[in-house]
């Protein structure tokens, strides 16, 4: 199988996993309509690490937006942009991050892009009037980013040993 075909196929599977981890393996946030915490960003970080930023952008943006179409559609356009930026940035930063600490640091900026992207969306686009309401989502988004960074930090070294990942780098 050609390397490009293998990367596209892998990205498609990861896009589906992002959808599943986001829409179906999530936990609703109390008192915030439509808000939920999930580990879908873990898949975005893994994709960005092994396939690069453009694949990470596609997996994060499209996989996340499709999940939002299922769970809470008003967020889908924002998710498409925010998660694409997150995946692209993660791919760029993870490219030269080869130690566990460097990888964690490289995932922090994309995690913050997600947190503040949704903050701006809720504040400016959804026009939530009370500052308490749209700032209330920040801790949950930080929890989601942190959880995904920790999970990706555990999964990436394990996946580096797999035959599929070795074939992607041949």
Coarse shape: globular
Order of helices and strands: HEEHHHHHHH
The proportion of residues in beta strands is: under 5%
Please tell me the overall pLDDT: 89
Going across the biggest sheet, name each strand in turn: 1-2
The biggest sheet amounts to: 2 strands, antiparallel
For the record, the count of structural domains works out to 1
CATH architecture: Orthogonal Bundle
Helix content class: over 70%
In the CATH hierarchy, the third-tier topology is known as Arp2/3 complex 21 kDa subunit ARPC3
Count every beta strand, where a strand is a DSSP E run of 2 or more residues.
Answer: 2
The level-1 CATH class? Mainly Alpha
The end-to-end span amounts to: 12 Å
Radius of gyration: 16 Å
Q: Provide the low-confidence segments as ranges.
A: none
Kindly describe this structure.
With 170 residues, this protein is mainly α. The chain has one domain: Arp2/3 complex 21 kDa subunit ARPC3, CATH 1.10.1760. Helices cover 77% and strands 4% of the residues. The protein is built from eight helices and two strands; from the N terminus they run H-E-E-H-H-H-H-H-H-H. The chain has helices spanning 3-23, 40-51, 53-71, 76-94, 100-125, 131-135, 137-159, 163-168; strands at 26-28, 36-38. It has a two-stranded antiparallel ribbon. Helix 1 runs parallel beside helix 3 and helix 3 runs antiparallel to helix 4 (76-94). It is globular.
